[in-house]
Fold this sequence. Notes:
Layout: H1 2-29, H2 34-51, H3 57-78, H4 84-104, H5 109-112, H6 115-130, H7 134-147, H8 149-161, H9 166-170
Amino acid sequence: MKSMKTKKVFLNLIFKITIIFSLGLIISCSPQTKDSYLEDYGYFMSDISNDENNYTEEEWLEIDEEYEKYSGELYEQFQEDLTLKEEIILTKYTVQYKLLRFKADTSGLMNLFNKKDFVELKEQLKYYSENNMTDDIKSIIKEADEIGSEASKAIEDILKELNINEANIKE
């Protein structure tokens, strides 16, 4: 009888330790501060930029989920504390991610530049233009040129629609 009670207490203790360990692991995987969020997001973008050509479609789906976490749930968590400079960095990450994802996507331009994405990219380019962020616009143009003529054409169309002179930006 005593051994049955001891076994039950032992199993109960193991169960509690497992739950505490699991909660600790879950909590430690999420950024605890705005700075750690920005740092983790930066590392994430750097990692996928460096290895963009080495991912399978299945891996891209996992990366998409992680991107959604950074650009959605975690962004909302820290949004009120972000400075203008940090908001600009996060906007740049959005454009960069969409371009990287497009390069990896075999279905081509239609997935990146569907109506919603086209409008979002247009708004981001407009924001860059209004805030004299020509280096960021140059970076987007360069990435689009690397992707191919269709992406370059889409960026050119947006810049024309926004009355942004691409020649002045490239100089």
